[in-house]
Specification:
Blueprint (H helix, E strand, L loop, with lengths): L11 E5 L13 H17 L10 E5 L18 H25 L8 H14 L16 H15 L5 H6 L2 H10 L10 H21 L17 E5 L4 H11 L6 E6 L4 H14 L5 H10 E5 L11 H8 L5 E4 L10 H22 L6 E7 L12 H18 L3 E7 L2 E3 L10 H12 L1 E3 L6 E2 L2 E2 H10 L8 E6 L5 E2 H8 L2 E3 L1 H10 L8 H8 L18 E5 L3 H10 L2
Helix pairs in contact: 3-4, 3-6, 4-18, 7-12, 7-13, 8-15, 12-13, 14-18
């Protein structure tokens, strides 16, 4: 990484392997080597790994690490300097070969020039020379890369590619359709109509599913004390981890069940602790409470019955949980509804089914974390994420009408904490890093606003929603008098504000947008220089609006210190 300071990624994975039943020749075959990389890409997409966690190369090595060859200490710990020196030439060779592959960009060859040009474009954007023509491109690279590819296809071929095509069509089909398209075409204009049909069908059929469930019909008096048992989903996410941290400090909490996607209880606890540590939330008090109260529940929102084993399901049924906080979601404004449906919609339905069974022993409150993006004041259709949250709201509201004690908490844009720590995978983080790198920013319209709330403020609002017994919808937005102007952001960064034409020229002059480099993607996402001008939508009459002020000093600290 010292040789490539702008590459924010895992670039090499060294795998010592001493199993005799594996022969080194097995991994020297190009097809096998390629299949390993394809499998890694699929796993990365399945588990929503950040691009910086996806390795570019694999070195399969059969050299034993021992004291005798100096790679291990007497306590069997790696000698870092020795290991680095031992593999340095091979690592350099990998970079050399990788650069050669990217220059050629033709591991997959087609019979016509335009198809090869499309593939060359994909190689340059994703920095992934190994691609599977049978898999959708969206399953092989990050969503930031998908956005960069859509922009590049529009600019290079004058062809509009909808998200559904990238996430549902095999890559080979996508390349063929771009090849056949004429300038000005939009691929598969009917795709959005098909999505609308699915959304309308889900609202109807899933609401009917809710009507079959039974909830305890009883009025719950406003809570006079903090709940003792919670069930939280999404606790490794940016908002969810702050919900978990604040819950751990609530004085009356005895047990916190946490749904975690993991292969073992040990790995689940590691994921939770790592997330708390990443955002500096693991204070001694939090750590002590975590060890005493957290019970990981291994499961998956995208699976039937949440992929819970019988023991875990029965445990939750009789647990007498006071509050279920459903904060888990695939937050992705690039993917179509169909790609988000399993987690964001069907996962919510499965949780409501579980809640109905839990209510048989003791009534509990259900808090559904949604987004203000579900509200539109214009004719634009909701994107896939907003549509998935809107359908989720509809089935939660149907359950509330059936007797479930619950509320919907809609959050505005959440991009950092009150202390100025950013969400590392957010588009705003990417844009700011990109602007800092090139030293200039696009001129925005006079008065263009950026409206955000802090993750810890959002988490507290979600926990406080338990006191609002008669409010079904709570909108958490920033204070009207404390919105941030884009021009103030650029002043904080100390960068020059340039014209849109100059901004486009600068971004276009960049060689490529590396999917492992978030700053490059920040530039590609706003290559046209058009920045969002956020206005608080006209929210539901009768809903509660919790207005939160933006900490400008924390923002300034983040902008100046984050690299």
């Amino acid at each position: 990484l010292e040789k490539f300071p702008n590459q924010e990624s895992v670039t090499i994975v060294v795998v010592p392997n001493t199993l005799d039943r594996f022969h080194s020749k097995l991994f020297k075959d190009d097809i096998t080597d390629q299949s390993l990389r394809l499998e890694i890409n699929k796993l990365a997409a399945k588990h929503s790994l950040r691009p910086c966690y996806i390795p570019r190369f694999i070195i399969i090595d059969y050299t034993q690490w021992t004291e005798a060859n100096g790679l291990l200490t007497s306590s069997l710990k790696p000698r870092r300097a020795k290991v680095r020196a031992f593999y340095e030439n091979r690592i350099d060779s990998c970079w050399s070969n990788y650069s050669s592959l990217m220059e050629r960009g033709n591991l997959i060859q087609c019979d016509d020039d335009k198809s090869n040009n499309v593939l060359q474009l994909i190689y340059r954007i994703t920095m992934m020379p190994y691609l599977d023509l049978q898999e959708p491109l969206g399953n092989q690279c990050s969503s930031l890369s998908v956005t960069a590819f859509r922009n590049a296809t529009r600019d290079t071929f004058d062809v509009i590619v909808p998200p559904t095509a990238i996430f549902t069509w095999p890559l080979g089909v996508l390349v063929s359709r771009i090849r056949e398209a004429s300038p000005g075409d939009t691929l598969s204009k009917d795709e959005r109509t098909a999505e609308d049909v699915i959304i309308a069908s889900d609202k109807k059929t899933l609401t009917q599913e809710i009507s079959k469930l039974d909830f305890v019909q009883c009025l719950i008096e406003p809570l006079e004390k903090e709940p003792s048992k919670l069930f939280i989903t999404g606790a490794v996410g940016f908002v969810g981890v702050h919900i978990l941290a604040k819950s751990l400090l609530m004085c009356n909490v005895s047990t916190i069940y946490v749904l975690v996607r993991a292969e073992s209880r040990k790995y689940a606890l590691e994921r939770l602790l790592n997330s708390l540590g990443e955002f500096k939330l693991l204070s001694p008090e939090v750590a002590e409470s975590f060890e005493r109260t957290v019970v990981p529940i291994l499961g998956d929102l995208a699976s039937e019955t949440l992929a819970l084993d019988r023991e875990s399901y029965e445990l939750l049924e009789i647990s007498k949980v006071d509050i279920i906080i459903h904060a888990a979601a695939c937050v992705n404004h690039v993917k179509p509804y169909s790609a988000l449906r399993a987690v964001n919609v069907l996962g919510t339905l499965e949780l409501l089914k579980l809640a109905s069974r839990m209510n048989r022993t003791s009534p509990c409150r259900f808090v559904y974390v949604s987004s203000t993006s579900v509200v539109r004041n214009d004719d634009r259709k909701l994107d896939g994420y907003a549509a998935s949250k809107a359908v989720g709201e509809s089935i939660v509201m149907a359950a509330i009408d059936k007797g479930l004690q619950g509320s919907i908490v809609r959050l505005g844009m959440v991009v950092w904490t009150a202390s100025g720590r950013p969400n590392p995978s957010d588009w705003l983080t990417a844009l700011i890093l990109g602007v800092k790198r090139v030293g200039c920013a696009p001129k925005s319209p006079n008065g263009a606003l950026l409206k955000v709330i802090a993750a810890d403020v959002a988490a507290q609002s979600i926990l406080d929603s338990r006191w609002h017994d008669h409010t079904k919808v709570i909108n958490v937005v920033d204070g009207d008098g404390d919105c941030i102007l884009w021009e103030h952001l650029w002043e904080c960064l100390g960068v020059e504000v340039t014209s849109l034409s100059e901004w486009k020229r600068i971004v276009k002059s960049l060689k490529h947008h590396d999917q492992h480099d978030i700053a490059s993607h920040g530039l590609s996402l706003f290559a046209d220089g058009i920045l969002p001008n956020d206005q608080t939508p006209e929210l539901d009459p009768g809903s509660l609006i919790v207005s939160q002020r933006v900490d400008i000093n924390a923002l300034r600290s983040y902008l100046m210190n984050h690299n």
